[in-house]
Amino acid sequence: MLSAEEIQRYSRHLRLAEVGEAGQLILNRAGVLVVGVGGLGAPVTLYLAAAGVGRLGLVDFDVVEHSNLQRQVIFGTGAVGRSKLAVARERITDLNPNVDVITHEVRLDRHSALEIIGQYDVVVDGSDNFATRYLLSDACVLLGKPDVYGSVLRFTGQASVLSRKDGPCYRCLFPLPPNPGETPSCAEAGVLGVLPGIIGSIQATEAIKLILGKDGTLTGRLLVFDALAMRFRELRVGKNPDCPVCGANPSITELVDYDDFCGASGHEESSSSPIPEIEPRDVRARLTSGREILLLDVRDPQERALCHIGGLLIPIDELPTRVHELDPAREIVVYCRTGVRSARVAHFLLRSGFAKVWNLRGGLHAWSDQVDPSIPKY
Q: CA-to-CA distance for 250 and 338, rounded, in angstroms?
């Protein structure tokens, strides 16, 4: 039975015939694992806690940064530098002290995923990388748990319910991951701050429907939202009978090394030909000594307007058509925000016949740490 306090707290649920007291008690006894307390995980966690989901498991191992505050609404400015899980626990407890918050401050991998996921009824994927998405989907298939998927980038978001017996898993939608560096992260490409709130709210809705056993979930459907056009569209996605995990004759019956799976999918770079890297402090020393080095900034113009350390701006997408502007005989140090895009450009230049190319290790973030703290980390 619900207490008097709970009747008052959940009164709007109790008035819904589809929920009622019986449904609220089901929610109160349910357990949901939210993987990633970031842009998606923040609204998911808040709404599930407010709805009275009894056990909330949170997986994250990061600390709050200023750049999180634009969209990760569970955190405030005073939380910067603190553990995301510690702050999230405090916020959830303040919102609904009836919720049991279980924190898992780990990076999920094939060794820990099954044990952690097995403790919950539903998994909500708020991760931001392909390795974790494949890991969660595979683990949910093996354990018979639903995987509430969501992703956001720039102005576009996606949501679906995966890994159920009557629907596809993540591998059915995306049999192979993209080559490393092929798809930019939110940190590289940006994301509209409200977009994770929209997609995260959809994920929370689907999780609640799954707990209550309601029809009409996104199983077999991929919902795509374009925030600029303010338009939803729906794609029918079927179960692949030949899927190596959820198909009729699965070949994957245990979790694999997902970093390896997502990092060695035909990418042209290999460990046998590493990209030369240089530390920011070493670049500064060479420039100070008068050595002629071309600094090549491969970020977007709007990023350049925020901060830069000089040099020539050629955005990464324009490089193939502007490579003739560079002198192959010059020493070139390529830089970007954190060193990811610049590594791809350095690799491209080396393959194009440029012999004196280095990637600025850690990008402008490292430059801020080692050389000039006035360079903002964005």
A: 39
Residue 154's contacts (CB-CB under 8 Å, 6 or more residues apart) are 189, 190, 191, 192
Q: How far is CA 346 from the centre of its chain?
A: 25
Phi, psi of 4 (to 5 degrees): -60, -40
Rg (C-alpha) for the chain, rounded Å, is: 23
Our answer to whether residue 307 is catalytic in this structure is no
Active site residue 186: yes
Question: Are residues 158 and 222 in contact, defined by beta-carbon separation less than 8 angstroms?
Answer: yes
Model pLDDT, residue 266: 38
Question: What's the CA gap between 41 and 60, in Å, rounded?
Answer: 10
Average pLDDT for residues 312-326, to the nearest whole number?
93
Query: Is the CB of residue 232 less than 8 Å from the CB of residue 223?
Result: yes
Q: Which CATH architecture has domain 277-370?
A: 3-Layer(aba) Sandwich (3.40)
List of residues 6+ apart from 127 with CB closer than 8 A? 35, 36, 133, 136
Residue 360 neighbours by CB under 8 Å, 6+ apart: 277, 278, 280, 283, 333, 334, 335, 336, 339, 342, 366, 367
Mind listing the pLDDT tens digit for each residue in 234-255? 999 999 999 999 999 999 999 9
Of residues 108, 95, 22, the one with CA closest to residue 56: 95
| Cα–Cα distance for residue pair 109/139, rounded to 1 Å | 10
CATH code of domain 4-263: 3.40.50.720
Please, is 28 exposed, middle or buried when counting C-beta atoms within 10 Å of its C-beta (0-12, 13-18, 19+)? middle
What order of strands is seen across the sheet that includes strand 312-313?
277-278, 357-360, 331-335, 293-297, 312-313
- Hunting for tokens 């049991």 — which residue is that? 100
Of 186, 243, 246, 262, the active-site residue reads 186
What integer is the mean pLDDT of 103-117? 96
Most confident of 147-151, 174-178, 268-272: 147-151
Q: Dihedral, CA atoms, 227, 138, 165, 160, nearest 10 degrees? A: 0
The answer to whether 152 and 196 have CB atoms below 8 angstroms apart is yes
Domain spans, the chain = 4-263, 277-370
